[in-house]
Amino acid sequence: MSHSKQDHSEAYELGPEAEDDSESEAFLIHASQQDLPRFSRDRVVLKHSFSEFAHSPYGAIFFISVTMFVMLSVYFYVPCTLHLYMVCLCFAFPLVLAVDLARVVHRRQLPSTLAARMRVLGCLLATSYTLFCTLAMVLGIPYDNGRAPPPRIPQTNYNPNNETFYIASNLYNSEAIFPRYSQALLQFIEDVGPSNVFVSIYENDSKDRTPSMLHELDAKLDAIGTQHKIQSVSKRDHFRTLERIRRLAYLRNQAMDPLYLEMAQGLHNRAFSKVIFLNDIILNADAIHTLLNTADGVFDQACGIDYYSIGLYDTWVTRDVNVRRPRPLWPYFQRNQDQKAVARGEKVLVDACWNGISAFDARWFHVASNTQSNNSDSEQPVITHLPRNSTLDDGEFPVKLPLRFRTGKLCRASECQLSSLDMHRLAHPLRPLIYVNPRVIVAYDQRDYFMFHSLVFWRLNYPWHVVWEDWIATRIFGFISEIGRKSDPCRKTYLKMYSPAPPS
């Protein structure tokens, strides 16, 4: 009897330290045969298995991988399956493969179990793919999964029709984003020609270095010969007590006023072609070029996609063709054809959008537009068919050209959504061409910009797109994320003012 107890003690002490799998297996068999209650035997076996795993190289890899996942989740603000995928592919799988191969070399035989062999094979395939993607990145092999922002646009496509652009922007405490913002702005101006751009920036009440940075931008625009109007003002306390949408509409109109006043005759006596409105966003010049090339430049309004930590940010303004709000999580829209368009990086026809960056056919902001006919050409902006000086009053605030940002009379809606709504009201029964271009990606934070503009689209992450985004998250469990889609309290009020959805 004492001999039996001595054997058990020795087996338990050797278990966590055992270098040979047979010793560990012998312990498990021995423990399962002890004269103990079943629950106690299971606890002994489980405790031994966990202790053995924790003291093994695999345990160290596991705990370091968990730590890396947590660090990535903190850095990018929220946990994401992409972080887990990248930790496994770039760290865990290669190290597990290295440990397995080292054991094979040491023992001079392949793993004895099918599960161990499958582990080696799986890690070998994953590591090979990681090495291939790394090599492709080092060699600069081009890669485009169809959704990523397109590569640098050829210089010949910058401004082939010699168009003129009015760029408007509102800034407030924008010091953090200003270097990238101003760099993109100056690069775009250089691309299309300094004499083809007018810049209007209206900043108010910033507590950081935004005013002084704007002063530096003012000097740079002077140096390259670009006409501009940059205003930094302090508003009275009474202004801050106004309702939020009323304040925002006023500030946006201040940025647009030069177009209505001193630039009413256009730039060098040429009418503006496009109006581009920028929020305080991080972007690059290619984002603006790509936006302007939406539908080959034929649109009434085109928007990008602005991101924050969990996905699409501007769900309060954007409405699909059924006047329904998108959700923050991929693939954002509810209609199947819209989801497929986003997955292919193609434009999505919507009823309203803004999304941090928005471009308009400038004729919406002229006093009047040309009158052609009331027969809509679906391939031309609706603005070409509006009656001259048309005015509409349908219970909401009257609307006429040029468009102005405003508050709602019948319902509290964003001033940006109301600008799209007013296009529908003026165009009825025609439908304005308003698109979201998913390949135009901007953000309000450096980390979010890196995540959604670059990291998500690495060649390494293509399997994650296919397996997780397209199948698991969308087709299998998409109904769960639909729970987070917010309703629109103004939908019933404004539904009759939006143009009918086109046939599916």
Automatic annotation (TrEMBL):
The keyword Transmembrane applies. It comes from the Eukaryota. Residues 1-11 have a biased composition (Basic and acidic residues). The keyword Transmembrane helix applies. InterPro entries: Mannosyltransferase_CMT1 (IPR021047). Residues 1-21 are annotated as: Disordered. Keywords: Membrane, Transmembrane, Transmembrane helix. The chain crosses the membrane at residues 58-78, 84-102, 123-143. This is Uncharacterized protein. It comes from Malassezia psittaci.
